[in-house]
């Protein structure tokens, strides 16, 4: 059974991709059968950092979208009332308007429509891809630009991970930015690497992460040390209070 290490940061731009990529590649170079999982689906660029060839798509992630047949619609407004995402608006006497970017694909509107005026369409929201760099296999989740269904792409990525982890000893997961989806990945992980930079936003992100990540299974990385000594002291104090061992990476403009 492979050990899963989630590399996370509580916010974007802390350097977690740099840490995840290096950790995975060094482990693979040492002969440990390693899989790097790029779950930063809005900006999956581990393969670029590695210099690997462009990932090959192996699956498409779909979401359901409603399509309203105006010839059947009686403008009763029931679909608008039930929509949990406020993605539908009734223009009185004219039509029902779908705000595509808000739709969550739950299809409640279809179930409540008394006229059977709502049809179900499939819409492509992302992809799962694979690539390889030397001894390191890479599994990538990618959200279609402009889409907001990161959760669907991460779900699909986890499905594929179940197969891809066969024969591996170590799985390194580069988590999405922020904390919303990290919870889902944290539940499936055995160890955590928490990468922070010396900014108030990053420190707050780390505090949020610590609400659902076990500090006893966590290693800290303070990145860009030398930029803001006061913030660095605050981060060290927090790591000390939580008994989290940490390493520091000095700031470099190169
Ligand atoms: S599919 Fe769900 S979220 Fe989308 S418009 Fe219908 S009810 Fe609203
Ligand atoms: S529930 Fe059906 S009939 Fe009523 S407004 Fe919506 S689409 Fe039209």
UniProtKB/TrEMBL annotation:
It comes from the Archaea. Residues 64-93, 94-124 form the 4Fe-4S ferredoxin-type domain. PANTHER family: 4FE-4S CLUSTER CONTAINING PARA FAMILY ATPASE PROTEIN (PTHR43063:SF1). One of its GO terms (molecular function) is oxidoreductase activity. It comes from Ignisphaera aggregans. This is 4Fe-4S ferredoxin-type domain-containing protein. Coiled coil: none annotated. It holds the Pfam family Fer4. PROSITE patterns: 4FE4S_FER_1, 4FE4S_FER_2.
